Amino acid sequence: MDMQTVVLGTSGTTPQDVVDVARHGARVELSSDAVEALAAARATVDALAAKPEPVYGVSTGFGALATRHIGHDLRAQLQRNIVRSHAAGMGPRVEREVVRALMFLRLKTVASGHTGVRPEVAQTMADVLNAGITPVVHEYGSLGCSGDLAPLSHCALALMGEGDAEGPDGVVKPAGDLLAAAGIAPVALKEKEGLALLNGTDGMLGMLIMALADLDTLYKSADVTAALSLEALLGTEKVLEPELHAIRPHPGQADSAANMLAVLKGSELTGHYQSGEAPRVQDAYSVRCAPQVAGAGRDTMAHARLVAERELAAAVDNPVVLANGEVRSNGNFHGAPVAYVLDFLAIAAADLASIAERRTDRLLDKNRSHGLPPFLADDAGVDSGLMIAQYTQAALVSEMKRLAVPASADSIPSSAMQEDHVSMGWSAARKLRTAIDNLTRVIAVELYAATRGIELRHGLSPAPASAAAIAALRAAGVAGPGPDRFLAPDLAASDAFVRAGRLVAAVEPVTGPLA
């Protein structure tokens, strides 16, 4: 089967599948076992719908209105109404990749056979994804409990042929027109289906999975830039040796130290800290403790990855259809597990940015850079060098510290106090995306400064891996040392270089795969 086709069964999916569908347009197919499970669960819901006893989401209102029994003649209207009324988002549009992840993950839960949605509705969800139709979802509207209600409602609205969506050409049009152009019939929702399409942690989970993919590259990139800064500052690589990290057995720390040591192998710039008139006994914390800080972030990522994998294996809905045929109310839609790790990652990202900025500042300060010119300028005084690049980096770090304030520690009651404690996981995910954008820029500034610092160490050769990184950066159009120039384009090019994973790609042919 085509590598760009993801088959959804009853057992869930993988993080890579989510990234492939969200970012790379992979097609989605439903497996035969998923279709069978969907049909079986739907038969259970149909049987319950025929009985006089009220069942939440099937024959009752929602939330604080669950006390009203809804007759057969109003149930289709009930399902339409929950989608229309809950599609109440406001603010800027959410990114296309986030919406695709949201839709795919809701389809993943639907395909589990625990929601009672008909097979034809699930197939329509897959058809919309495969047609490249992306509903317009807004920034604000989710409290992370009962799941990402407003964002998912905007997606369900598009399935009904209502609201707006972006077509495969990037143009926003009425969703009904886009469905018609793709030959997709709008769905007419039946009992429980409207609720089942809205009630999940899919937005925050999708953003967590993509954040982990981005951070995996960024933590490797940060190990490389830390090594480059160490070289430019004539630091010692002795603190990176495995026996020092074995006696404090945090796995992320050992991986970061190993990455840095691999980058520095063969350098003529390291190990000079004891020479000269004022020998250094040891390097500053921002250099010496780089593996400890980056390693702690890596271990945080490992925990977040475990939470994401558990959530990917979950069927989040309320009520759910159990294997024994019971339909049971539950609280599995509460986003706390995902919200906590989203906040934790924002804290780790802020600290990684903070230590990278401190190394950059050290490179620019003639009193602490061990012989480099002030601000790495060509003719200091006439030239300002990278002075203001560090200002920009500091502004980014300051913003990241604000973004590290946990969203999950907040809760605002809703739905007439029926939903009186919420996770704010969507908000945690949104600020993490901003933090990751800023972290990429911070690492790009350190890369720009460290490579210039190395090139200003005349007569000493950098490590082969460092030389490869510098050559790749220069080939990408980022200038080396010289008189002042318009700096913003260079910083933007360095950002694009890091963001695309090209820094890691440049050094790995020399170092081997980084951990």
TrEMBL record:
State one molecular function term (GO).
Answer: phenylalanine ammonia-lyase activity
Under the heading Pfam families, the entry gives:
Lyase_aromatic
Q: In which pathway does it act?
A: Amino-acid degradation; L-histidine degradation into L-glutamate; N-formimidoyl-L-glutamate from L-histidine: step 1/3
Q: Can you summarize the PTM annotation of this record?
A: Contains an active site 4-methylidene-imidazol-5-one (MIO), which is formed autocatalytically by cyclization and dehydration of residues Cys-Ser-Gly.
Q: Where is this cross-link: 5-imidazolinone (Ala-Gly)?
A: C145-G147
The record's GO CC annotations read: cytoplasm
Among PROSITE patterns, the record links this protein to: PAL_HISTIDASE
Major location, coarse class? cytoplasm
Task: Tell me which residues bear 2,3-didehydroalanine (Ser).
Answer: S146
Q: Which UniProt keywords apply?
A: Cytoplasm, Histidine metabolism, Lyase
Record-linked HAMAP family: His_ammonia_lyase (MF_00229)
The record's comment on protein family reads: Belongs to the PAL/histidase family.
What protein name does the entry list? Answer: Histidine ammonia-lyase
